[in-house]
Amino acid sequence: MSQLILHHYPTSPFSEKVRTMLGYTGLAWDSALTREMPPRPVLEQLAGGYRKIPVVQIGADVFCDTHAIASEIARLSGQPQLAVENCSAEVQSYIDDVDLNVFFACLMASGTKTLGRKMWQSMGFVDMTRFIWDRIDIGRKASARMVKFSEAKARTLEHLAKTEARLEQQDFLFGEQPNHADFSAYHSLWFVRELAESPLMDEFERVKAWMDRIKAFGHGKQSEISAEQALETARDNTPRVVDDAFCGDPLHGKNVQIAPSDYGQIPTAGQLVGSTPTRWILARTSQETGTLHVHFPKSGFELTPT
Questions:
Q1: Domains in the chain and their CATH numbers?
Q2: pTM higher than 0.70 for the full model?
Q3: Contact assessment for residue 54 and residue 13, using Cβ atoms and an 8 Å cutoff
Q4: pLDDT number for residue 125
Q5: According to DSSP H, which parts of the chain are helical?
């Protein structure tokens, strides 16, 4: 088995963000496929209530959200520009916008017959119906202001025009090599172009060429494993040691819960055992998995004592 296990499903845009990042770095990884929506029994054991996809597992350490995942990929690959915290303030602001506002605009603007057919083939009628209602429920309960359906196409075209202009004199969004922003911008447009096969970007030649460059990275060296094998990996390992320098939070050692602050706001409960400038680490113990450390980025998440 490889060191890194990716829990994902094929049509997940944020999983595609991570898959292409793994392709770019050439890291080997194990693919543990999961359902498009809860219940996900294995992930519930690994990450508690956290319901977003993807999740990465390295031994008995579990990483939630693509910001935390990208930091691990950056560390393992020696590519620091892939970690959000190593990017400039301008780039970080761009990432925040494309990961939330542009992402939802692209999803809403991608309602093609082709997308519907692919979803039907992937999930079947019953699960497809459940999936749609699940996503509607997520949007209804979200604290972040979502783009209106009537504004989604215009917002997507605006983003495409700005991206086209940005790529006029360079191969990637912020220079001659990709950073986290490229993979953040790619995954939403991947949904539009590859899954929905929408004509929205037909006139944006530089955007399509940039997407082709990202796509050419591939998905790297992957192997398939079962969910049960992922659980065995968690049981057979112990979490890596948390540096004493990251144990100074007033809530250190206390029971807390952490949840996304925008959408999918289901908390994960545990004991706070680490707090860095950009990350929280929870310890969770169960008979099925032993002790795990679950990592969350501070950006986009909220911690509350219990």
A1: 4-80+221-305 (3.40.30.110), 87-215 (1.20.1050.10)
A2: yes
A3: no
A4: 64
A5: 13-25, 41-47, 66-77, 89-97, 103-108, 113-141, 149-166, 180-190, 205-215, 227-235
